[in-house]
Amino acid sequence: MRSATVEHTVHARLILSGHSSTGLRARLGYRADDPFALTMAFPAEYSLDEPLAPRPGAEVVWVFARQLLACGLDLPSGLGDVHVRPSRGAYTMVELRAPEGLALLRFDAADLRRFLWASYRCVPEGAEGRHLDADRALAELLR
Question: Which among 96, 35, 106 is positioned nearest to 61, based on CA atoms?
């Protein structure tokens, strides 16, 4: 039986300036019961919006379309708050925009592809509609 969730922890570089970056870990997540979306979570200390001393283990979580990641591995993609694009070498850049500022992260493209492939083993591309629970989705919208 296939797993209903996929989680991978990957390394990323937070680009601070043209000559400065810092390493961090990001947790990528995918759930079959939310088949069009994925999550990208970072330690709260990297957030512009968190207090100076975030709770231990606190995370900042971004949710965006799985298809955005898939497209962004090969071509610049995204509108609004999340943009994904290939970069020189074997890297993929993810740009996260919020009212507090912008974060530019560099990932090894191979790590993102492995996560994406694992998500497709969980729910194949094109089969997302068969995993939707319309009643649950409607209930969440009406909360």
Answer: 96
Q: How far apart are CA 47 and CA 129, in angstroms?
A: 33
Token pair 């850049």 is found at 93
Helix, strand or coil for residue 124? coil
Q: How far apart are CA 90 and CA 74, in angstroms?
A: 11
Residue 66: name the closest of 16, 1, 131 by CA.
131
> What is the pLDDT, as a whole number, of residue 140?
61
- 3-state SS, residue 22: strand
Give residue 54's identity as a one-letter amino acid code: P
CB 24 within 8 A of CB 106: no
Residue 117 CA, distance from chain mean position: 14
> What mean pLDDT do residues 57-78 have?
93
Contact residues for 70 (Cβ-Cβ < 8 A; gap 6+): 116, 125
Contacts for 11 with CB less than 8 Å, ≥ 6 apart: 23, 24, 25, 26, 107, 108, 111
Ranges 19-23, 41-45, 95-99: which has the least confidence: 41-45
